């Protein structure tokens, strides 16, 4: 009989961020997003900064992850990431500030400058956090603008 779930662990240097049986994940692999179902063939791949989508039946959870590796076996997937954050863990004002700082640094540096490369990575992490946090309902305690309904607008992207 074919398995309908597999165990997922998302681990950072600080702790196990997520551990549960799931039906599918879509991970930000180095060469594009990669879907994993139960009984997947064993593999190891490099991950990049992006949104990890976790499915358990009809329920979907998103996590912002940055840089790491994913080991897949038929029964279990382990993701080792530099950072991994659920939407409720993301500090939106801090992510917006990081985004603005990175954009300012990029505007002032040559593309080949090592600082520009670090600023680009910082910008990607901030944009990923904001994308994952956008699924939250607006609320004053999270720093949302109620008129934006928690969405990142084109105007926000230019700040």
Automatic annotation (TrEMBL):
Residues 135-159 are annotated as: Disordered. Residues 6-84 form the ATP synthase F1 complex delta/epsilon subunit N-terminal domain. It is found in: Cell membrane. Keywords: ATP synthesis, Cell membrane, CF(1), Hydrogen ion transport, Ion transport, Membrane, Transport. One of its GO terms (molecular function) is ATP binding. GO terms for cellular component: plasma membrane; proton-transporting ATP synthase complex. InterPro entries: ATP_F1_dsu/esu_C_sf, ATP_synth_F1_dsu/esu, ATP_synth_F1_dsu/esu_N, ATP_synth_F1_esu_C, ATPsynth_dsu/esu_N. Residues 88-133 form the ATP synthase epsilon subunit C-terminal domain. It holds the Pfam family ATP-synt_DE. It is a peripheral membrane protein. It comes from the Bacteria. F-type ATPases have 2 components, CF(1) - the catalytic core - and CF(0) - the membrane proton channel. CF(1) has five subunits: alpha(3), beta(3), gamma(1), delta(1), epsilon(1). CF(0) has three main subunits: a, b and c. Belongs to the ATPase epsilon chain family. Produces ATP from ADP in the presence of a proton gradient across the membrane. This is ATP synthase epsilon chain. The gene is atpC.
């Amino acid at each position: 009989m074919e398995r309908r779930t597999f165990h997922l662990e998302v681990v950072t240097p600080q702790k196990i961020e997520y551990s549960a049986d799931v039906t599918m994940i879509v991970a930000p692999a180095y060469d594009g997003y990669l879907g994993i179902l139960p009984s997947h063939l064993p593999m190891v791949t490099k991950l990049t900064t992006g949104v990890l989508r976790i499915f358990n039946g009809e329920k979907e959870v998103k996590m912002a992850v940055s840089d790491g590796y994913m080991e897949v076996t038929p029964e279990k997937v382990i993701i080792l990431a530099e950072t991994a954050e659920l939407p409720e863990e993301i500090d939106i004002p801090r992510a917006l500030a990081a985004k603005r700082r990175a954009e300012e640094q990029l505007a002032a540096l040559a593309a080949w400058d090592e600082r520009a490369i670090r600023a680009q990575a910082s910008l990607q992490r901030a944009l990923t956090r904001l994308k994952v946090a956008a699924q939250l309902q607006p609320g004053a305690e999270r720093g949302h603008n109620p008129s934006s309904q928690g969405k990142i607008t084109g105007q926000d992207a230019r700040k």
